[in-house]
TrEMBL record:
Provenance organism: Lophium mytilinum
TM stretches of this protein: 140-161
Coiled coil: none
Family according to the record: Belongs to the glycosyl hydrolase 16 family.
Gene Ontology molecular function: any one: hydrolase activity, hydrolyzing O-glycosyl compounds
PANTHER family: GLYCOSIDE HYDROLASE FAMILY 16 PROTEIN (PTHR10963:SF55), GLYCOSYL HYDROLASE-RELATED (PTHR10963)
InterPro entries: Beta-glucanase-like, ConA-like_dom_sf, Glycosyl_Hydrlase_16
Record flagged with keyword Hydrolase: no
Stated name of the protein: Putative gram-negative bacteria binding protein
Amino acid sequence: MFSADRDIRYANQMLSDACYKALPIRINLDLIAARESKAPLIRKRPLLRVQAIHMEEQKEKKPERMPRPSPQPHVQVENPFQTPQTGSVASVASASGSYFIAEEQAPPLKQRKFKSARLVGEYEKPWVKEKEPRKIWDKVIFFGFLIVGLGIGAYICYDGWRSVPHDNYCPLFEDDFRNGINPEYWNHEVELGGFGTGTFDWTTSDPRNSFTDPEGLHIVPTFTTDTTDITEAQINDGYVLNLTKTGGDGSCTSTKKIPGGDCSVRSNITSGSIINPVRSARLTTRGKLNLTYGKIEVVAKLPKGDWLWPAIWMMPEKNTYGEWPTSGEIDIMESKGNYGDDYDGGRDEISGTLHWGPTTVLDFFWKTTGKRDIRRTDYSNDFHLIGMEWTPNYIYTYVDSRLAQTVFVRFSTKLGNLWKRGGFQHMFVNGSALSDPWSQTGRPNTPFDEPFYLILNVAVGSTTGYFPDRQGDKPWINFSPTAGRDFWNARNSWMSTWGKGNERGMTIKSVKMWREGKC
């Protein structure tokens, strides 16, 4: 229980302190009456509202300390919880030049009726009547170019869709290798000579180099010292490897009349000749399945490893127009196993190429080749669809989509045959004019008008330029007689880059072939 007088004294003391500090202050003080006391209650009065307003301004920078005012003798208040806020006015004066006004109730605020400032009636609007040509032309130009741009974009999309041929194809062959390597369609080519490209691998029929599992067909290169009885010393000197039928094991499949180095080799440390240090595999459909105009799709994952050369390609069943490249070659896909960040044109890039020309020196493949890169990954990390479409009017190769073409070559009488397109009629070799091997057919796509068979292989190295010299720390020089030995002696620099297990090989999940025309 506390006294109302004591509360009044406390309020006056606070106001005196504020006045002493010369601060303008306005205080609304609601005094609450004492709790229930033993004395009888005074008659009910309204809540006392005290307002203090400082009326004097400070005239000096450092005001003198003013004495504390004495507390007021007596102010009566009642319990606000029992008294309505109505009653008489009381006032309390201070001795410090400020005054206090205690009022019974604040006067009500006057409400002014809202008056709208909106203009009523008809008023002139000159900005509507006056037209600004500059703003109008700004809009016309913007929307005009927008419409033109959208139209051009739509036409480009339509033209791209329209340019993709939609020919009829009849299924010819399909193999997912779930039942192994079917000898009814596939051959193993066994040779040592590199098939004209100077590769360092020995292609075999060994099941460690070509085999199947639930993933598909694997073509995996292995080291000769790991899969044969040939030692490291014998690879370099004093060993004869004979695959011929006369004096050898008879496994060589070369069709040359004089196979020479295709079927046998002798290691000699003096000449630099060595036994092929790597074994791999090469599967073909030669003599069993061929195609003239149609479509091929192969789902494959490429190998990891420096100087590996995976390829999916086609060669003619017969050299109708002459030896390579006169009768043509279709490279559906070629790549390199080198890591793309370290080697320009590595396994993050694949290419498609047509080889053609009247002589080996005049192979004009560079006119009909293209490539397709992949970003943030490479073609050895997952399976990709690799395809080709071939008609009398064009040949094109692609990856993953028919729109993602690696190379597109069109044939037409307007463009002329390949003899004319190559400009060979103006060329001479050893002082002699060249003879035209193709024009007698009258077809603009000759020599790509004959049956071709399919080849799947993983080669190792090359001496004919597929791996350019002085690029990517290449350890041998093209056309060098010791290229194979230099490659093998530098194996510590590239062996660690080859993938583990099947990753160093190419995996083919499926092969599909269609013939042009209705079934």
